[in-house]
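Exercise 7. Given the components listed, write out the predicted structure of the assembled complex. Treat all entries as one system.
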Amino acid sequence: MRHKATGVGQQVIDLQANSLSKRFGTAAPVFSGLDFSIRRGECVALVGANGTGKSTLLRCCLGLIAPDAGRVSLLGVTLADLGGTARRELRARTGLVGQKHNLVPRLSVLSNVIHGLLGRHSGPRYWIQGLAPAEARAAAMAALEKVGLADLALRRADQLSGGQSQRVAIARALVCSPRFLVADEPCASLDPQAGEEVMALFMSLVKREGVTVLFTSHNVQHALSYGDRILGLQGGRIAIDARSADVTPLEMAKLYG
Ligand SMILES: Nc1ncnc2c1ncn2[C@@H]1O[C@H](COP(=O)(O)OP(=O)(O)O)[C@@H](O)[C@H]1O
Ligand SMILES: [Mg+2]
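Answer.
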């Protein structure tokens, strides 16, 4: 079953959040009444102080946790309505790159990238490269080429540097040709030099492939330079929703004030 994305005029909206609210237990709401949308091909930086709810919001947008109120529509599909099959289909067209790479340490780089196809296929043939169908191995090698690590395909994941591991995690996210990617502080665990390289690589790949991206970064410079648009979260509300070229350093600073 394929779903048509909702269009507004000529512009396709890949993510639409309406009146989104989330709280944990009896604590004050992390956020409430959030409304925003992300157009196809846009790269949006979600920024805000520590603990303002960026990761929680990202997880709601991907359907990994349910909001208490409101609605998320992702690639034209309303998340709350999804049955198991539709949820799997949607998962195969979306991806998450986290702060930690979460590679399986004792498996090869290639096997780890093949795991990125598990949204589309299931079963042990996709657990290790030796069992994987030839097309899966070829797709994983192509993804490794893109991140410049094809020569390390057979190395064990626990033999990689932090920067290399994060590049493998990016290959794993790209191998299923996702339409929408979420990256939650993809460089936070790397030293500044490796972080810069990984961010530049990630952004050049998603732009080249036309993937819609929502990412967070604690690095204001990364947010402004890589994001076409800034969504600023403060006090449980959207305090900034503007093109990054129009956001002043003072406005950014206020978010963290
Ligand atoms: N699973 C959870 N259970 C309870 N509280 C949580 C959970 N996840 C996040 N929180 C709380 O929600 C708030 C927002 O957290 P988070 O989304 O991680 O913020 P950010 O990513 O902006 O640092 C924090 O106060 C955090 O402690
Ligand atoms: Mg976070």
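Discussion: DSSP finds eight helices and eleven strands in the chain. The longest strand covers residues 11-22.
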